[in-house]
Q: What sequence folds into this?
């Protein structure tokens, strides 16, 4: 790995840069704002490139910073030169540089994970390469089953639903039904959306009934953070759980606690 100043005219944008939607998450900080920040404070982190030949380079990560410096009229830019020849490895580097940023478009992430998955055919191996859990990778891959119209709407700042809910929709309903599903679960918190989708069993008619129930407060639920096997605690079980936890803490009584957990699993 080498770090050096490179003439910007010899750097071209890479098709393997995972960040395609440069507008995602930039409502408060666009390229113009970033350029102003760099003008005042300098470029704090070098871009990442790979060598194409003796003179030319391909940009792997740092596209927004590169464009901002280009806007400032810079002729040279500090860059980390990575010795990467495999295109999938270039995608991995770009993804790792961007994946933990909240402002990266989820579909960009999903497509990057898909490219890496095509090489390894195993979500666990993709997880090892990227440092992201296999379950999260599966969730993003599922987003690619969403209808194209929904994918177009999906940005980090104003998506039609949360990522988990969208992944569950893609998993449960076919693309022709997904827009209608979004209409029926719209306006509810993501936890309630997930519960509605889960209880619908992929039936749109049942989902309409669940919407009516949700509007009446039937899903007035609270997150369960202490149990591995439930995501929601129905209102009628909150007090029994509190009592079971108290008995366990005071008397070591595990039986009543297990009884409540069985009810949650039903």
A:
């Amino acid at each position: 790995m080498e770090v050096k100043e490179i003439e910007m005219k010899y750097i071209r944008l890479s098709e393997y840069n995972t960040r395609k939607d440069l507008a995602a998450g930039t409502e408060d900080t666009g390229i113009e704002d970033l350029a102003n920040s760099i003008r005042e404070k300098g470029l704090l982190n070098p871009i990442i490139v790979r060598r194409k030949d003796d003179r030319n380079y391909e940009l792997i990560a740092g596209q927004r910073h590169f464009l901002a410096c280009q806007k400032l009229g810079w002729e040279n830019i500090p860059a980390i030169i990575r010795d990467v020849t495999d295109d999938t490895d270039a995608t991995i580097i770009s993804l790792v540089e961007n994946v933990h940023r909240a402002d990266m478009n989820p579909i960009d992430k999903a497509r990057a994970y898909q490219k890496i998955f095509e090489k390894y055919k195993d979500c666990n191996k993709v997880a090892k390469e990227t440092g992201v859990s296999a379950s999260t990778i599966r969730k993003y891959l599922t987003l690619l089953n969403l209808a194209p119209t929904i994918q177009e709407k999906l940005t980090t700042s104003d998506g039609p639903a949360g990522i988990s809910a969208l992944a569950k929709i893609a998993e449960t309903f076919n693309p022709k039904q997904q827009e209608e599903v979004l209409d029926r679960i719209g306006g509810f918190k993501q936890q309630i959306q997930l519960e509605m989708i889960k209880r619908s069993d992929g039936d749109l008619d049942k989902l309409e009934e669940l919407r009516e129930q949700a509007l009446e407060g039937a899903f007035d639920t609270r997150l369960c953070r202490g149990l591995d096997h439930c995501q929601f605690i129905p209102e009628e079980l909150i007090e029994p759980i509190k009592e079971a936890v108290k008995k366990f803490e005071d008397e070591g009584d595990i039986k009543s606690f297990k009884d409540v957990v069985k009810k949650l699993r039903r």
Observations:
- The longest strand covers residues 76-82.
- The chain has 13 helices and seven strands.
